[in-house]
Amino acid sequence: DAKTTQPNSMESNEEEPVHLPCNHSTISGTDYIHWYRQLPSQGPEYVIHGLTSNVNNRMASLAIAEDRKSSTLILHRATLRDAAVYYCILRSNFGNEKLTFGTGTRLTIIP
Amino acid sequence: DAGVTQSPTHLIKTRGQQVTLRCSPKSGHDTVSWYQQALGQGPQFIFQYYEEEERQRGNFPDRFSGHQFPNYSSELNVNALLLGDSALYLCASSGETGTAVSYEQYFGPGTRLTVT
Lengths: 111, 116
Hints:
The structure holds 2 protein chains of 2 kinds.
Chain A: E1 9-13, E2 18-23, E3 31-38, E4 45-50, E5 55-56, E6 61-64, E7 70-75, E8 84-92, E9 105-110
Parallel strand pairs in A: 1-9
Antiparallel strand pairs in A: 2-7, 3-4, 3-8, 5-6, 6-7, 8-9
Chain B: E1 5-7, E2 10-13, E3 19-24, E4 29-37, E5 44-50, E6 53-57, E7 64-68, E8 74-78, E9 87-96, E10 106-107, E11 111-115
Parallel strand pairs in B: 2-11
Antiparallel strand pairs in B: 1-3, 3-8, 4-5, 4-9, 5-6, 7-8, 9-10, 9-11
């Protein structure tokens, strides 16, 4: 499985934008970039995914580099509820493939 | 609409014992995956069930086995428990019945297993 590299931890002030980076230099052409987050004492939850183009949904935006070797998850206005571990995952486009989690980025929101 | 449910919430077992964990997928989902999450680590894939068959398996010993029932619910069985099996066990469901691809996995809250 292609691997991803994320910072172990990040801090951000409440109500400010947060940019969470992910490097995936060995990504293959069929890999989608998925982001999940895990709130304290909960299972992971899907945030967003993309292939080549930038993506937006109600939770976040995903910016993908032109060479696809890195991506950034953007939370436009962080709230205390966004404090979680964020996982960047590469996943084959064949659907229902397993998720290979790394250790993720622990995001702390400062009130 | 109930999401993914798991039972029990917590469980304490002794080394050498056997344990069964249960999972009910989100309504409309036909695929169930199981993950093990040790403290401070990301979840690790154990196996996935679809149409009552194990479709994919991660790097876990044969002590870990599973089953999927006709109603798509699933069980995870672990035999000969070791101290190192202490972890949060997560179930995830995916796949809308009748469609080809599902990109999103829905996770349950997990079962916390402690082996003493």
